[in-house]
Known about the structure:
The chain is α+β, with helices and mostly antiparallel strands. It folds into two domains: 2-272, 4-Layer Sandwich (L-amino peptidase D-ALA esterase/amidase); 280-398, Ubiquitin-like (UB roll) (Roll), CATH 3.10.20. The chain contains eleven helices and 15 strands. Strands 1, 2, 3, 4, 5, 6, 7, 8 and 9 form a nine-stranded mixed β-sheet that branches. It has a six-stranded mixed β-sheet with strand order 13-12-11-14-10-15. A hairpin with a 2-residue loop joins strand 6 and strand 7. The protein is globular, with a radius of gyration of 22 Å.
Amino acid sequence: MKFVDGGVCAAKGFLAASVYSGIKQNILSKDLAIIFSEVPSVAAGLFTTNKVQAACVAVSKAHLKNNKAQAIIVNSGNANCCTGKQGLLDALQMAKVTAKTLNIKPEDVLVASTGVIGKAMPMGKVINNIPLIARKLNIKDSTEAAHAIMTTDTVKKELAVSFKIGKHAVTIGGIAKGSGMIHPNMATMLCFITTDAAIDAQALKAALKYSVNNSFNCISVDGDMSTNDMVLILANASAKNRLITIKTKEAFEEFKAGLFELTKSLAKMIAKDGEGATKLVEVLVKGAKGEKDARYAARSICNSPLVKTAIYGQDANWGRVAAAVGYSKAAVSEKSLSIYFGDTKILSNGKPLNPDENKLKSILSEKEIKITVDLGLGRSSATMWTCDLSEEYIRINAKYRT
């Protein structure tokens, strides 16, 4: 398996393009994009569990009922959420106009939006620019599409992996956005994935669920969950491999491994680019009674503002980690609890070890930090990713609408 260039256009038969339509105020920032498969694709998606959901979520869920799609239209700058019946009609019209322009069925178009909640979508700007994007579709514009879905992101998130299934080269590519409101399950994040693998709907859904549960559902920036989150995947079979099913175990495991590698890498990019973040933090919880307990403890650490601010200040305040574990839903015993910053053990079976503070400060000065917690109660483990919390996070979010 190797990483390759091309993002969502790396897989055979996929095109992309984007434009500045006027949804955003910044004329230098593209805000409308289309990802298109030249042939019909098997498709699957996972969506936010927030009880308030944007119109695009409802439309894309409905259009995925037949497990097929051929295009994705996505805008940034406007969430089209809490916009009532008109918002739903607008999302449906985005699909309808895109379909007419691309000469495909409206139900084969998936819709995604991200941005400010509660504002009507400027449909005139959207509709007028869809034909322009369609004319620009090509195999080189994945990067432009990645830029078009950014909101408070500071860097684009774009990757592709290539590997063999049998004698056939298979590629999976993706773009993602996410910087704030990041919290399982999922969080202000969008991810669009393309693959030229031949795979049936059941296997595609299973691989996507596994990959998302162990990547995007394992990151947290601020504990807030968005109304628009989704991960969509299209598989167009252009690689000509033998059809992957749940029963073709070796091929399915190879595909699942490739998809997980892609989503894990994109998830870490999101955590690293957290609003105002200066450090990527990996949290490993081991020795748990079960996987749920490991996830509970890891998530509690990742969501703790006190832990995150201590890391930003390079303060090895391990007591905050212990407290976060203790108030989680996980089974915890103080007498068996051990904590590490990097490879330096700070707490051993509930007893402080008083390591060298300069060494700890040096560990916390790195751009990527690992915190390990051993609950000492079992054999299960979980890994999650987060970032530190700085003054910049407050500045960004205090002025998000302005």
